[in-house]
Amino acid sequence: MDQRKVLVTSALPYANGPIHLGHLAGAYLPADIFVRFCRLLGREVLYIGGTDEHGVPITITADREGVSPQAVVDRWYADIRDSFQRAGISFDHFSRTSLPIHHQTCQDIFLKLHKKGLLVKKSEKQLYDPARRRFLPDRYVVGTCYHCGYAECSGDQCESCGKPIDPLLLIEPKSKLSGEKPEVRETEHWYLPLDRFQGQLAKWLGTKPHWKENVLNFCNGMLKEGLRERAVTRDLHWGIPVPLPDSEGKVLYVWFDAPIGYISSTREWAAQQGDPELWKTWWWDKDTRLVHFIGKDNIFFHALMFPACLMAYGNYVLPDNVPANEYLNLEGLKFSTSRNFAVWLGDYLDRFAPDPLRYYLCANMPETRDTDFNLREFQAHNNNELADTVGNFINRTLTFIERYYEGRIPERGAASGLDQEMLGRLGRIAGELGGHIDNFRYRAAADTFTEFARFCNKYFNDKAPWEARKSDPASCATTLNVCCQAVYGLSVVMWPIMPFSAENVWTQLGLSTNWKDHPWQQDYAGKLPAGHKLGKIEVLFPKIDDEAIQAQEASYKGGKTAPAVTAEKDELPGVIGIEHFAGVDIRVALVKAAEAVPKSKRLLKLTLDLGPLGERTVAAGIAGHYAPEDLPGRKVLVVANLAPRKVMGITSQGMVMAAVDGEGENEKLALTTIDGAIDLPPGSRVS
Ligand SMILES: [Zn+2]
Question: Motif 'HIGH' region: where (predicted)?
Fold first, then answer.
């Protein structure tokens, strides 16, 4: 294994709201598991984090709440740091980008690039909100993505296809401040000509065949399209001032500033160690393995833009790996901070222990494709795998020793075939599991762990010590001795995934709870000598009951709880469970009126009667297929619980269903109607 020192970073969370489980599974838990593994393995490792405290959404929150941006980030920095601590995310240092040390670091890098002539000043066109009389930062603009057609695309990056966005190219742009169409005006900004680094980046990426496929595919796609220059400054009053004359009102672009936060956080750490230059032994040493853990929406900045900045500066080590995760969804839908559709980490930790969550997310890690967080599955993992398998083996072993051997580990005699098989597995577990973690295969790591615990239980059953105790006491003693060593082995390989439980097992075994006393690769079979006294025994993983699950569900389902679904889920991507479908409210609607929408070839504005749900206005893209006068009196099907959205100035409160084939000129379309069914009143449910 590669024993070079490792500098690990997790994407800086944005100090504008709490952490949810989607964040945790993306960039924090995988990093923490890897870091803890490195520590036990004896690698020199430094785990760096912090909060990203600049940028436009923070000013939006501050404006909305009538407080300063600093007050917003102070609150969320404390909240985020606290949640991470409670979840066991073990940063060596957790800083924040609003600190002077970070401002200095960023300005230094900006000035060095400027001196080297690597920044280009350009007069650029920017969107301006005449109603509010200010330039609009990218995130103050929303429109339709020109790559993929996503309608709620933000002006900086498309949430749907992940590509960076030029807000001037957005289709039908609108100001988030006034809701009006912005105008285009001139302003001056500094750019990093990323196109000049294209060759260097391509060559460097060519040396990374071991990277995850999703990351390489994304980068190669961007390189194929050709990299473009990117603005590194913005017109905004909250952020790091541009350190040049005549730059009043301009700050560094938050995406230039945020990754540099890893460097400044390391500098702050070094200063606290009493050696302010110590950070250079990490960032300026080519033998450092730099590993950035991120979510897939951050690939562009970590695998292309930040490396280009580091190349431009010189001295710095470039990332050795960027293991980006896909998304964790919540019961089939995206986590949404704005709609409060999320399991908040702090809220979760008020109800449950951190380790069952860490285990479930590890087993369900979105490492190669999006995965789903489901509370019922979480409950099943806890109750079946942790409580009934892992916890059961540990508990039955320790209580047996307490009851029949006065809590002291019995003598190991001659090993039978079964004993040797068990000891053989125990000798291999660290290598197998470590190989998975070292290669960011978390799902396989969780599987290997649980499979080993299953084998331990089988060994206990096959040896039947409760019978052998009378018929063959020596064999019984050997079994319990071997089981104890296996409990110890389980606890060590458990620590990266479930540190709190591992430390609990060490207490129960009467051992030190300091991880430094429990190295990864060692002879677990010889750890506990005969006669060693156990500590106080307790249940490691209590079962989680339905009531607790329902209470957590209610927190994001508005008090309503979904029916328990136990049917096996198909593993095919795109297949949904019945509870997902049940969330879609389809109704019969009677068309009361229909009219053309000015300047739109596609849209008709429909007034619909949904019976008990009242009247709705819906914009439907059916203009080329139906004349407005043909529609009143017809009964159509409509998705009634879609969030309202604005289309061409109309607030559309639902979606009319239609069958479609082809696109553009060749599009064939038929409304889904139930015209014949006169007995079905408007508002009837479709299921
Ligand atoms: Zn897109």
Answer: 13-23
| SS3 letters across 553-573 | HHCCCCCCCCCCCCCCCCCCC
Side chain identity at residue 455, one-letter code: F
386 neighbors 453 (Cβ within 8 angstroms): no
337 annotated among ligand-binding-site residues: yes
Residue of higher predicted confidence among 437 and 581: 437
> How far apart (Å, rounded) are the C-alpha atoms in residues 292 and 564?
38
Segment 7-29 mean pLDDT: 96
CATH 1.10.3210.10 fits 109-250, yes or no: no
User: What pLDDT, on the 0 to 100 scale, is given for residue 237?
Assistant: 82
- Whether residue 649 contacts residue 603, with contact meaning beta carbons closer than 8 Å, is answered with no
Ligand 1 centroid – CA 159 distance (Å): 7
pLDDT of residue 678: 60
What pairing do the DSSP bridges indicate for beta strands 134-135 and 120-129?
Answer: antiparallel
Bridge partner list, 190: 121
Give the length of the chain. Answer: 687
**Distance between Cα 157 and ligand 1 center (Å):** 8
Architecture of the domain spanning 352-526: Orthogonal Bundle (1.10)
Decide which of 2.40.50.140, 3.90.980.10, 1.10.10.10, 3.90.550.10 is the CATH code for 584-686: 2.40.50.140
Confidence (pLDDT) at 580? 63
Distance 446 CA to ligand 1 centre (A): 34
Consult the annotation and say whether 161 binds a ligand: yes
Q: What is the pLDDT of residues 603-656, one digit of tens each?
A: 899 999 988 888 899 999 888 888 888 898 889 999 988 877 877 878 888 889
145 annotated as belonging to a binding site for a ligand: yes
Q: Which of 23-32, 123-132, 396-405 has the lowest mean pLDDT?
A: 123-132
| Mean pLDDT on 478-488 | 98
Range with the poorest average pLDDT among 146-150, 435-439, 577-581: 577-581
Cα-to-centroid distance, 27 and ligand 1 (Å): 22
pLDDT tens sequence across 653-678: 888 998 888 777 778 888 888 876 56
Q: Give CA–CA dist 258/13, Å, rounded.
A: 10
* Residue whose token pair is 């007069």: 123
Question: Side chain identity at 105, as an amino acid letter?
Answer: T
Residue partners of 251: CB distance under 8 A and separation at least 6:
54, 233, 234, 236, 237, 238, 239, 240, 241, 242
Please tell me the least confidently modeled range out of 187-191, 487-491, 596-600, 626-630.
596-600
Nearest to 51 by CA among 77, 78, 21: 77
Strands 586-596 and 604-609: antiparallel
Is residue 571 very low, low, confident or very high in pLDDT (cuts 50, 70, 90)? very low
Dihedral sign, Cα of residue 196, residue 202, residue 203, residue 208: positive
Q: Which CATH superfamily is domain 6-97+256-330 in?
A: HUPs (3.40.50.620)
Identify the pLDDT of residue 578.
63
Bridge partners (DSSP) listed for residue 128: 135, 183
* CA–CA distance, 478 with 415 (Å, rounded to integer): 7
Q: Is 1 helix (H, G, I), strand (E, B) or coil?
A: coil
Task: Report CA(325)–ligand 1 centroid distance (Å).
Answer: 19
Whole-number Å distance, alpha carbon 11 to ligand 1 midpoint, is 22
The SS3 assignment for 371 reads strand
**Measured in angstroms, how far is the CA atom of residue 215 from the centroid of ligand 1?**
17
- Strand, helix or coil at 249? coil
Domain boundaries of the chain, sorted by first residue: 6-97+256-330, 109-250, 352-526, 545-578, 584-686
